[in-house]
Input
Amino acid sequence: MPPSRTPPLLQPYTSLPAESSLHLLTSVLGASTNWLVVRFLCGALAENNAGSSWRSAGGAEDGGTGGLSNHGSGTTGQDEEGEVAVVLVSWMRDWEFWKSESRRAGGLDLARLAQQDRFAFVDGLVSLFMPPAADQISQQAPTSTPTAPVSSTQLSRPSPLPVRSGRSIPPRSPAVSSRHPAPAAPSDQAQHVSPLAAHPANLPAQPKGLYRLTSPALEHLEQVLSRAIAGVAQLPPGKASPRKILLILDAPDLHLAAADPSSGITASSMAISLLKSRQRVHATVLAVAADSPLVSAATSASASASTTSSLSSTPLETAHASFLISQAHLADVVMSLRLLDTGFAADVSGVLRITLGDAQDDGEEGQGLVEKEVLYSVGGDGGVKVFERGAGGGNE
Amino acid sequence: MPPDLQHRRTHNLLLISKLLSGRDNGSPFTLLLDSLEQSARPLIREYIRRANVAKTRVVFVSLETLRKPYGADVFVQGAELRPPDLQKEITLATSSSSSLSETLLIFDTLNALASFQSANLPAFLSSMISPTTSLLAIYHLDMALQLSHAYPYSPHPLTLLKYLATTIFTLYSTSHVLAQRYARDRSLAEPVFGLAEENEGAIAGLGRNDPRGVVLEMEHRRKSGRGVREWFFLPNPSATSTNGAVPSKKELAVVLLEDSPLFRRVLQDGGGEDDGAMDVTFELGLTEKQRRDREGIVLPYFDAQKGEGGEGGRILYDMGEEDDFDEEEDEI
Output
């Protein structure tokens, strides 16, 4: 394994961000931020992971129960600056994707890191609109009063996420072929989730650090987030300094777009909820889409700054633009991915523009970071080259 | 130097210094209009710095800020509060300032409040202002508001805010202003930045939040109703200090935009970054000495206009040695 899979030009930007900072990554269709998120995962987890991976190589196969021993051997060799833990919330991709992608492109073993309490994954995609599985309460209106039942079941029941891949779908009508039965009727859901509810008890090893959102309510999101944060925040044995937690939110705009705005989920309430979560963590990385239809409301707002701009765009556009721009205002670093202005090229995937927010009050952070615009190319093996314009990929 | 400019400079510099220091309650409600290209935070810091010097109490109401800014005396976390509760909280924070006479109340954004249908923003803000409390609020120009239940004929919140404000500062990134000025002087299309680029995926322009300082466009309404407009340049204190030299008091002062050294330089020889108009191997410009020498030269026709020459369209010609006098040539 090479010491780092992050291109040197990007290294200062994707290493662990400064305290209480916010990095905003924006993507467009065709220029996704997934590789960048993986680089952030590497930046936060890789150094320590590299140390502990060869150290605990002998004991690595003791799987589920060996979390503590693994952990102990890992901590002995680590530097004294404190471990870093990551909470990744993804509304767009599932656990399998991130696991394989970060192994392939970043050389990270997220499952093992989750065992070591250094990584937690919150799945916002799979069951965002499914009623909580275990509670057999009312099937009608599961999302209207979700918080109380959700919290109790989520607390008592370990996440059934890994079951999903292995579970057998009960014999049913052939019409239901979807793996994600979110839009199914309530009666279907009840049947569908009942095997899930039965399973977790007799699962051999319950992976730690996996959570999922089961309701679009923001209170629920905050609860799950704080549980995930608490899960990785506990003091590692023999260490005085608490872990620094990096919170990565992938595509929270999906939450905004999918949730019912009449239930109070607006751009500003999302922003407030995010602000609350940011108070609990060391730093935050946010990946949001910035395709032009989604920011057109902001463009028109800034162009005319006038009265009728919000009338011409749909609520979804307004909400998205409002959320994106508000976070961009707060962000210390904005990393925007876009396609080449001149069309497609075989050796260039797109353009990465890094701009800086307002310099912080208290000084020393932000040093060494300068705004720049570089080209990048994501290879088929997950490797990424980043180079200046005209440098022709000579720099890897 | 025209006396008009001199007068304007003195007058407007005094005015902005009064506004920034909040002396004599110069502006009860100051609205800062910022965008992604230039945040209003540097100006807020300047306000806080001056308020600290003047022993004015600074109450910072956070609706989106995570950390208490340096120099703020009270930090109110208002993001989760509904407007009435927020109002109570702020009244509590401002009224407890019995020892200090003046209070500077800062809102880090009004966009969130403006999109609350239930918040009557003008009334809300007016209730905060008192003879000893002045209000400073940021509004992000490029943020679309989610006005779900807005009455269709009611004016946009920004219109109301602009009407209400006694001083409006619009902030621009220095490098963008320089680039635009550079293009305008050469009759080129002015460059646009950030969202205005309409380049899919680019939400923020290069050169945003210029570390050298901020360009301010001020619009101040006097009590008489007369408006004063002026452009200023506010240098960034940390940018000048990182250059090694200790910033003197003079360097940190606000200047008129046209007086700022950066801006004058761009007028003379074009913006430093995009000076690619002429790419040649020899020097086309002039040094200061060359320029002075050149200006010192008295050209012959200036000489000729003095004294006896030139009347009646008569052509003056001094024969040189090599000239061949031509008899045939008439009128010489």
